[in-house]
Predict the 3D structure of the following.
Amino acid sequence: MRGFVGVVAAMVFVLQGCRLDGGSPAPTDSGSAAAPSGVASTVVSVKVNASQYGIGAVIGVTVVNAGSQPVFTEDQKADCTVVILYRRSGSGWTAVSPCGSERAARTVSLGSGEALEASIDTMSTNFAEQPVEPGEYRVTFGFRWQAGPEAGEAARVESSVFTIG
């Protein structure tokens, strides 16, 4: 029994700072997050290419892994990319992230020192049932340090807020 308690205590220590709901502590204003305790150095960031977009614009997104180990996520999120688009809704945020692809999500690996470019076409047919309307937005990149999707997305980073409209 003592061994079991020790293992549980060690797991709690390693996971300190991560939320069980798949979220993570709030990222810094720069849109980057460092790995939790017990995980090799990983610094991931997500940025959009403008602070303001017109209706129907294409949003350019860059995700950078400046850490020492790869991170993993799935595609099939906003406009079938690896990020989720959120619109400010009152005091909270609402996901606006349809993907009309009829295939299973693919695991995407972002190696140490790699960058991934993505484009969200706000006029895409993916948004036909959930249109991108004028307002304040941000994108979020959720990721994990293990390849298998069963690991969930233990961390996330958010871009700065931008405007559409």
